[in-house]
Structure formats: C-alpha cells, structure tokens
Design a protein that fits this description.
By secondary structure, the chain is α+β, with helices and mostly antiparallel strands. It is 40% helix and 13% strand. The protein has 3 domains: 75 residues; 185 residues, no CATH class; 28 residues. It contains 12 helices and 4 strands; from the N terminus they run H-H-H-H-H-E-H-H-H-E-E-E-H-H-H-H.
Length: 369
C-alpha cells in the first residue's frame, strides 16, 4: 500500500481560512461580540494575553482574544507577532510599585498589615455557583460597590517597609552606577546560568498553567518551597520615560499591574543574620494566579543554587526553556505539518525489523523441528 500526500495546495489553504472565519463568527443570527465587549467583560483573559504576549495594549489583546476564538495561547502568539513589528524608542524608568494606586492588597502573613487589607475585586469569597442571571443579559443593573469608610493611605506600605525596622526580609542590592544594562529577553537569546533579571523576564512571559503546575509541585515537596503569601497588590503605576532631548524623566502613562511577594525559608549562616527569603512575581493587568506561581517558582529557582536540589521546578534550564507557551505550542503543533519523509523512513525501518523478526521466528521453528 502506498502512502501519498493529500493534494490541495493554496486553494485548500484559502478555503480553510474561510472556514475558520465562518466558525469564528458562529451563528450569524446571534449578535457578533465586539472588541470593546471582550475588553470590558473578559478582562482577565485580556490581561493574561497582554502579560504573556509582552505587549500592554488592552484593545489589541481583546482583538487577539476575539480573532483566536478564545484560544488564549493563540491570542498570545498573535500579540507576540504584532509586538515584533513595533519600533523601539527606548527603555522606561523602573516602575515604583511602592507608589501604586492600590485597588486590591492582601497579606496572608500579616493580619493587621500597615495600610490594611483591601479585598478589592476577587473570586476568593464567591461560592462558585453558576449565576443564571448572567444568562439573561445580566438580570438588571449591577449594584455599585461601597466605598471604604476610611480613606486608603497613599502610598500604601509595602511588605518590605514592614520589615525595614528589623531587617527580617532579604533585600535586593542596589545596582552600581557602572552595572550592565538589564538582560533583554526580547532581543537577546537565553543563556545559562541565567541571572535573576533574565529569569524573571522568562517567568513573566511564561505560560500560567505551566508555572502553576511547577508552583504546585514545589508546595507538594518537589522543590522544598512552601511559602507564605506576604503581599499581593493590584493597582495602577505611573510609567516614566527620559527622552534624550530632555534629559529627565516624564510620565507617559499608567500600567495596571499585579505584584506578589512570597516569603519562605529562613536563610542565614555564620556570616549573615537569619532572614526570610523572597520570591517575586509581577504581571500586566489582574493576573494573581500567575503572579503567585511566578513568585513561588522564582523562590524555588533561587533555592536551587543553595541546595543543589534536582526537583523539576528548580532545574533552571528545564523551567526557562519550557515555560514559554508560544515556543512550546509551536513545537508541539508543528507535528501537524507534513512529515512524510520522516514517516516513510520510520515505515521502512519497521517493515525491515518485522521481516527480520519473522525470519528469526521461522529459523527458530525449523531448528526446533
């Protein structure tokens, strides 16, 4: 029996694109969802696409979600591809999350954390019951949330400032004036051993599901990291840029960010006082699960250098090489493309081995007789 390629070519591909557009639109008697509706009502999907697509633009992310029919890895791929077409005119100043205009801020480690617990918009206390009023176009107007009785402090204390007077939490060293520029994963190939700047960039762009599984594995004992959530905060942060013609930074906009600080593993020794280690997560938009997973995996990767642990979440090359869903999806899905030569080679090998097996079986039977 012969194995031959299916014929079709450009006409078949064009028709496949038309069919895809038809399936994306669905029943034409149902009103088409607008990009603005996706942006406003599927905001968590939009935020994930922005974060893992490395491009902060809510309208474009919403368009990608619509175009991809809700397939978020595909939407992230679209955002990454679009991002490569954009000219780069420089780097912003480091954002100051301590100056965040906070909408949500919680700590599982400190009940009475300075600044208070701000629950904000969260699924944490919902009953996970289907709300059938949403199937009836929302069932009426939404009751507005009550405002806080006491005004929130601004800026709101960070977990680092809570520890400052005792020095119980490790701090990042201040870069020297002649320190090299931070690693730019969007322009430089990944290298190992990776600095923390490269690791955090890779984790920020990494697939939420992959990082969630790694974080879970660490909590289950595969990585020696069972942290406490010191702080999660969600809010808006100003972005500043210093144009060459001005020579000083100016504010050019705001970003919505989710920041997570995990603390774990008391570290210290003969030359250093004991203190809590820290894992860090930061994402575009409202992506708490991703930020928490990122912080746990960051901590696990840092522990690996100290403990020489071989757990999957502490294997730097394994984690960073395989966390990118665009690359992973492409490598898996490329198997759908023609591999006729590979298959023919494998087919001939299996047939030859079967002939050799049959010949041995025949020889053994004849010898037995």
């Amino acid at each position: 029996m012969a194995y031959v390629a299916v014929k079709g070519g450009e006409a078949a591909i064009t028709n496949a694109h038309r069919w895809l557009a038809e399936d994306r639109r669905g029943d034409p008697t149902v009103a088409e969802v607008g990009v603005d509706q996706v942006r406003e009502q599927l905001s968590l999907a939009v935020d994930r696409v922005m974060s893992e697509g490395s491009c902060y633009d809510r309208d474009l992310a919403a368009l990608a979600v619509k175009q991809s029919r809700g397939d978020l890895p595909e939407a992230i791929f679209l955002m990454r591809a679009y991002r490569t077409t954009l000219p780069r005119f420089g780097y912003s100043q480091p954002v100051e999350t301590g100056q965040m205009s906070v909408r949500r801020r919680i700590s599982a480690a400190f009940k009475d954390i300075p600044g208070g617990q701000v629950l904000g918009p969260t699924f944490d206390y919902t009953h996970r019951l289907l709300d059938f009023t949403l199937a009836a176009d929302g069932g009426g107007p939404i009751e507005p949330a009550l405002q806080a009785i006491e005004p929130q402090p601004y800026p709101m204390s960070t977990i680092a400032s809570v520890f400052d007077h005792e020095g119980l939490l490790e701090t990042d060293p201040t870069p020297a004036a002649d320190a090299p520029e931070p690693f730019d994963l969007s322009r430089e190939p990944m290298t190992f051993p990776a600095g923390r700047d490269q690791r955090l960039q890779a984790l920020a762009r990494g697939d939420e599901g992959f990082l969630l599984s790694l974080a879970y594995s660490s909590q289950r004992g595969w990585g020696s990291t069972h942290p406490l959530c010191a702080e999660i905060r969600l809010g808006e942060v100003a972005v500043e840029f210093a144009p060459d013609e001005l020579g000083f930074p100016i504010e050019i906009g705001e970003l919505t960010l989710t920041e997570c600080q995990m603390i774990s593993t008391v570290t210290g020794g003969m030359e250093k006082a004991p203190e809590f280690g820290r894992g860090y997560g930061l994402t575009f938009g409202h992506c708490e699960r991703k930020a928490m997973s990122m912080a746990i995996v960051d901590r696990a990767l840092r522990d690996a250098a100290e403990l020489d642990n071989a757990a999957p979440c502490q294997d730097e090359e394994f984690v960073l090489y395989h966390s990118d869903n665009v690359e992973a999806s492409g490598f898996v899905q490329h198997l759908k493309l023609p591999h006729y030569v590979d298959f023919q080679a494998d087919l001939q090998l299996v047939r030859r081995l079967r002939r050799e097996y049959a010949a041995r079986e025949t020889a053994m039977k004849e010898a037995a007789e």
